[in-house]
Amino acid sequence: AVGALIAREDPRLFQCPDYHTAMAPWYALRARGPQRPPPRVAVVLHNAEYQGAISSQQLKNKQRKRLAQILDLPQGIIDGHMMAEGGFNMLQAGLKYVTLTQRGFG
Q1: Is-above-0.70 flag for pTM?
Q2: For residue 18, is it left (φ>0), alpha (ψ between -120 and 50) or beta?
């Protein structure tokens, strides 16, 4: 829902206050489509120690596929942008988004 709101309202900047909202820009990017520029975000770290990791175990391909279905995102995005040290990590998702779309500024 937040990603759709970002895509619809087109704010100058979306502030991701920690890992809780770090995945929203990926949904906004999908909702906006390739014809519009990606939404700009700023990731603010309040609790970087936790990082939004849901598990410290290594996720195998079958588990990542199921996670992609649950999150309604392509597995390629999960695999390429939301994994850290073999585990799913929401903060990683936000940082990878900023790196990919804003060359690390944000």
Answers
A1: yes
A2: left
The CA distance from 13 to 58, in Å, is: 34
The H or E element that residue 32 is part of is helix 24-32
Q: Write out pLDDT tens, residues 22-52.
A: 999 999 999 999 899 999 999 988 766 666 6
Q: How far apart are CA 105 and CA 52, in angstroms?
A: 21
Q: Strands 83-84 and 41-44: what pairing?
A: unpaired
The answer for 72, left when phi > 0, alpha when psi is -120 to 50, beta otherwise, is: left
